[in-house]
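Reviewer comment 2.1 asked that we show a complete input and output for one of the modelled complexes. We chose the 2-phosphoglycolic acid case, as it is the one discussed in the main text.
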Amino acid sequence: MDFIIVDNYEEMSKKASDIFVEKVNQKPDAVLGLATGSTPERFYELLIDAYKQGDVSFEHAISFNLDEYVGISLDNSQSYHHYMNEKLFNHINLPAAQANLPLGETEDLQVACDNYEAKIKDAGGVDLQLLGIGLNGHIGFNEPGTPFEQETHVVDLAPSTREANARFFDSIDEVPTKAITMGIKTIMQSEQIVLLISGEKKADALYQLAEGPITEDFPASILREHPNVIIIADKAAASKINK
Ligand code: PGA
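Response of the prediction step:
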């Protein structure tokens, strides 16, 4: 794992957008893995800026998001479909048919998972995957205890994850209890991974990721076995590690 430690959230976001812009310029039909949450919000703004300035075109790129809630409609303002449209897709030239998210609003969830996994494989796999990390070490919605060998699957969200995400909903009762997520195995098959981590409250998580044991109890720890991972951390998040 390579570490890039920067001063603040803005620099973290800029480093990450530079890496994605460079990838798409090198390989216009790159397969990008995308993430939601608070952490990548500025990253997406910077990608939009780069597109508007003519520094990059997403016309031939393909994207796959990590996860989506189960049980809320796609146009619900808290769905990840909605997040991605608002924060990125409505503002760049990635054709809608090339932007993929798991379908959490469907009759047969297992079929949705299998189709998603197959679509990633048909696209040739993810070239560059963006990740955030939860306080409990989750990546995507792979909560502690998820087998490392799992592909795209349905998960029960951990109580701590529902609490952390309740800030986006009117009350915790409205936070979905399930989601579809790429599995750890799916994520580990990406050619390159960029993980963003910012803020003092994530310092323990980065310590465990960098220096703790590799264990299913802290899902992100498996990234230490991936050959091409860049961790971009701000100083606050990196305050407990020796880098
Ligand atoms: P956050 O979420 O960016 O909103 O902190 C990250 C995650 O839970 O994976």
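The chain has a mean pLDDT of 97. We note this here for comparison with the apo prediction described in Section 3.2.
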